[in-house]
Design brief:
The chain is α/β, with parallel strands linked by helices. It is 46% helix and 13% strand. Among the domains are: 147 residues, no CATH class; 208 residues, no CATH class; 192 residues, P-loop containing nucleotide triphosphate hydrolases (Rossmann fold, 3-Layer(aba) Sandwich). The longest helix has 33 residues. Keywords: ATP-binding, Helicase, Hydrolase, Nucleotide-binding.
């Protein structure tokens, strides 16, 4: 099909170009581009990003990404003109002024697909288009002539989705001891014929087999700490014994990760050991995530039937298109394009998931088709479950089915287990958390849209059947009126709190502002103060709030007992689905009761002696000086203590593995730090330890450059240094910042300059694109560079020429928070800080060399980089202190070497 004859616009930091419907392309200014877009709908790609480049947030038009999401739901595409070209099999545009012509060509290709009898996603398209036309979707009139009406009416989405089937409980696994010869043979099969045999990988795989041996004592799992350098092949190294054990024992192995990127990699690698499906159609490998990651079909139905309006309603229709073709309904990191939600500049994607634990389980009309229930039941029968650290911990702590709790666990990215445990086992009594509890109990406040219902509505049949249960529900709902309601932040600011919990939060706010000395008040950041030396009035308010919370918790406990009694002595009307619904309600109740008990324990401690196991503090959370939450926080001083009690003691075999599991001190690897951050100190067994060195030649492939003449606090000098490094490297730079404000300032100063040189610059917290998609764009373009914060320091996997230089703006010192101060005091003072910094440096350096062919520079812009931290880098890596000018010469020389190596690799 010929190019679509509609005007097209492209805007970047390098300039703006407009192409007429049947004319030539011309350059124009931002103001003229905005006027053109306001006059008529223009073709563009990634409208929110174009709007950011033009400084015109209300920009709208015919976004080709929306058309792509309609025509090819659940298909991957990098959201750029180049990425669209690759996804459609078209020649990519040569440069910026060629993009508008390409957009017309790409639109034509997509419309041609709609007319093709081989269009694989045709089913449901015509019906969806009718709904989108009623919503005045800009593309609807353009597409309509190209999609024929089907001869038979298309099925409604909810009737097309498959149902899950019940299956019997899997028997407990057989007791198996793996033979090392079998493990090595399986490893050879997985790595493939002709693959390089790495002794480090073989030794690693043998060590992993030990965690699958039969346990000899209760609450004493086999435990392995395994440090495996980048490139050792640890994924296949542990999948070899895991797959052997699962087949021989009939049991399930859980592999837990911290990043979605590794989950995707694991799904791909696991295909070497397991088929996609068993002969009976079940899946031997399943990815499990928290409920908040999956599409909630009831929320979607509500959105499709009027719960969403405007652009959000269009998004709901596109999500419904995706749901019909999705592999597993995973909206966050699954096959839903990460950029789809950002195109609509709303939080509608999150609204389509179960964010608040409000699931009604078997009470839902879509229960048998629920993506979450599909995943849960599939994991119960799986050989391998790929999950994340938080889910594994929550499942161990309060899983609904004891038989599904993980017993053989491999924690990949094991250096993140500490922070995952820190988050999982913490407590926070804040205004936002209290409001969520109130809404769960009472339902939405007046004027709120959506399907949310209160506890009384969800359990109306129980309250009408069981008098005591009905009274418990009424008592809990009455007591919930003491919790904060809408407008609570404004009432606190006005000095007019309502109810005992709001009065306590007002006291927290006042005391935090009075005592905070962090400097965050002036900078607009969040502020905090320790929960100590509290006056009598504050303690009295805490006690009043604790009593109000107890008034909610006690009837909820009674309700849980009554639900159990109704299940045991079931009335005639309680069928199997009703039982499942009550079981789900009991699970949700237990979660809230546990949370309320933690809040009460936190408040009862205020004014009394400190508990050495905990760190408590008061906080006002702010963003750009705007308050968004206030509360009291409690964290374990050492979160590995509850982790050991909850996860390790119930397991039979556990491994923590990572390339940066141990601290690299001046005297070599420090296993004591790895043991301390694994929870092994709290169980009655000594962990085994294994180390496999990276096969990469860091001495000749990487270089650490410490730049000594960029002064700390000099924003102009910092921005200039970043720009010159990107120019010397020709792009391919990952810039890591410790503060969002400095990141934005640097980006704002240099993005236009670099773009004019053909070096696009993207940034977290600046570009309206999710982090995963930013990394996709960066990976796809070797001339692009990316600026980011902590989320990009770890878990970013960009092998090859696209990443050839990592730049840190300064030494990544720990944030001096109250929690850090307490752990620093308990962990050895400055040596504790040094361990954290070395770990961060090692993780950041690990982004640079991802394969044997990779090479590049790791640059730290620090005039006074402490020598004691240099051990963070792999042994043999050259480290040089030098000026910026000298560093630029080395980077430019390294680019020539990189390009020569790349050409050589292509020749081979």
């Amino acid at each position: 099909m010929p190019a679509l004859p509609l005007p097209a616009l492209h805007a970047s930091h390098a300039g703006c170009w407009l192409r007429a419907a049947n004319g030539a392309t011309r350059a124009l200014g931002k103001g003229e581009a905005v006027m053109a877009a306001a006059d008529t709908p223009l073709l563009m790609v990634n409208a929110p990003l174009v709007a950011t480049r033009l400084g015109y947030p209300d920009l709208s038009g015919l976004d080709l990404l929306e058309l792509f999401a309609f025509v090819h739901p659940a298909r991957f595409c990098v959201p750029t003109a180049k990425g669209l070209a690759h996804a459609l099999g078209l020649e990519e545009p040569a440069d910026g002024d060629d993009v508008p012509r390409f957009l017309q060509e790409a639109a034509g290709a997509l419309l041609e697909t709609c007319e093709s009898p081989e269009w694989p996603e045709r089913e449901g398209a015509w019906s969806a288009l009718q709904s989108l036309a009623r919503l005045r979707w800009p593309w609807a009139g353009v597409i309509a002539p190209h999609i024929r009406q089907p001869e038979r009416a298309e099925k409604w989405l909810f009737s097309r989705l498959p149902e899950w089937e019940e299956s019997g409980e899997r028997p407990q696994p057989a007791q198996v001891t793996l033979d090392d010869g079998d493990v090595q043979a399986q490893l050879a099969r997985l790595t493939g014929e002709g693959a390089e045999k790495r002794q480090g990988q073989r030794d690693y795989s043998s060590a992993v087999a030990g965690i699958f041996a039969p346990r000899t004592r209760r609450e004493a799992p086999h435990m392995l700490l395994a440090q495996a350098g980048t490139g050792i092949g640890k994924t296949l190294g542990y999948l070899a014994p895991a797959s052997l054990w699962a087949k021989a024992s009939g049991g399930t192995v859980w592999v837990s990760t911290f990043t979605k990127n590794l989950q995707r990699q694991l799904r791909s690698e696991s295909a070497r050991a397991w088929p996609e499906e068993r002969p009976d159609g079940s899946r031997p490998v399943v990815i499990r995530k928290g409920r908040e990651n999956y599409l909630c079909l009831l929320n979607l139905e509500d959105a499709l039937q009027g719960g969403f309006g405007g652009r959000a309603a269009v998004l709901a229709q596109l999500v419904a298109r995706w749901a019909a073709y999705s592999r597993d309904g995973d909206m966050i990191g699954g096959d839903l394009p990460g950029w789809l939600g950002t195109l609509f500049r709303s939080r509608a994607i999150r609204s389509l998931t179960d964010q608040r634990g409000e699931c009604v389980y078997a009470g839902c009309p879509h229960y048998r088709k629920c993506f979450i229930e599909h995943a849960s039941r599939a994991s119960a029968q799986a050989d391998l479950v790929i999950a994340n650290h938080a889910l594994v911990m929550v499942n161990a702590a309060r899983g609904r089915d004891h038989a599904q709790r993980p017993a053989r666990i491999i924690f990949d990215e094991g250096h993140h287990v500490f922070e995952a445990a820190d988050s999982t086992f913490s407590a926070a009594l804040t205004g936002m958390e209290a409001i969520e509890l109130k809404r769960w109990l009472l339902g939405p406040e007046r004027g709120s849209k959506g399907r949310r219902r209160g506890l009384a509505a969800r359990l109306a049949d129980v309250s009408s059947y069981d008098e005591q249960g009905g009274k418990a529900i009424s008592a809990a709902c009455h007591a919930a009126e003491a919790l904060p309601g809408g407008g609570w932040l404004q009432r606190l600011a006005d000095g007019e709190p309502s109810g005992p919990v709001e009065e306590l939060l007002a006291a927290v706010r006042s005391l935090t502002y009075a005592r905070d000395e962090s400097g965050g008040q002036e900078a607009g950041y969040g502020i905090e103060t320790e929960a100590a030396q509290l006056e009598g009035d504050f303690v009295e308010r805490a006690q009043a709030a604790a009593m109000a919370l107890a008034e909610i918790r006690q009837p909820l406990i009674r309700l849980g007992v009554r639900l159990e009694a109704v299940q045991e002595d079931a009335p005639d009307w309680l069928d199997s689905q009703g039982r499942a619904r009550l079981e789900g309600a009991r699970h949700s109740l237990a979660w809230r009761i546990e949370m309320l008990a933690a809040w009460e324990a936190l408040l009862e401690r205020l004014g009394g002696p400190a508990n050495p196991d905990f760190v408590d503090w008061l906080a006002v959370d702010r963003s750009d000086a705007r308050e968004y939450d206030i509360g009291i926080h409690r964290h374990f001083l050492d979160p590995m203590k509850p982790f050991a009690q909850t996860v390790l003691e119930g397991a039979h075999g556990v491994m923590l593995t990572s390339a940066t599991l141990c601290d690299r001190g001046t005297e070599g690897e420090d296993w004591n730090s790895a043991i301390a951050r694994s929870g092994a100190a709290y169980i009655d067994t000594a962990p085994q330890k294994v180390q496999a060195e990276s096969p990469f030649d860091y001495a000749s492939r990487a270089e650490v450059l410490i730049v000594t003449d960029v002064k700390k606090g000099d924003l102009a000098g910092l921005a200039g240094a970043y720009a010159r490094i990107v120019e010397a490297s020709g792009g391919g730079v990952l810039g890591l910042f410790t503060a969002i404000r400095r990141l934005r300032a640097v980006h704002g100063r240099i993005a236009d300059r670099l773009a004019r040189a053909g070096l696009p610059l993207f940034a977290q917290h600046v570009d309206p694109i999710d982090t995963g998609t930013l990394v996709d764009i960066f990976r796809d373009d070797p001339h692009a560079s990316l600026l980011g914060t902590d989320a990009l320091r770890d878990g970013v996997d960009v092998p090859g020429h696209s990443l050839r230089c990592v730049v840190m703006e300064q030494v990544p010192w720990p944030k001096p928070s109250i929690l850090h101060r307490a752990r620093r005091a308990a962990g050895g003072g400055s040596t504790y800080d040094d361990r954290i910094i070395r770990a961060r440096l090692a993780q950041a350096f690990g982004r640079l060399i991802r394969s044997k062919q990779d090479s590049g520079h790791f640059i730290v812009l620090s005039p006074a980089f402490p020598s004691r931290l240099l051990s963070a880098f792999p042994a043999g890596t050259p480290v040089t202190r030098l000026t910026l000018e000298e560093a630029l010469h080395r980077v430019a020389a390294g680019v020539v070497i990189n390009e020569r190596d790349a050409l050589g690799a292509q020749g081979e």
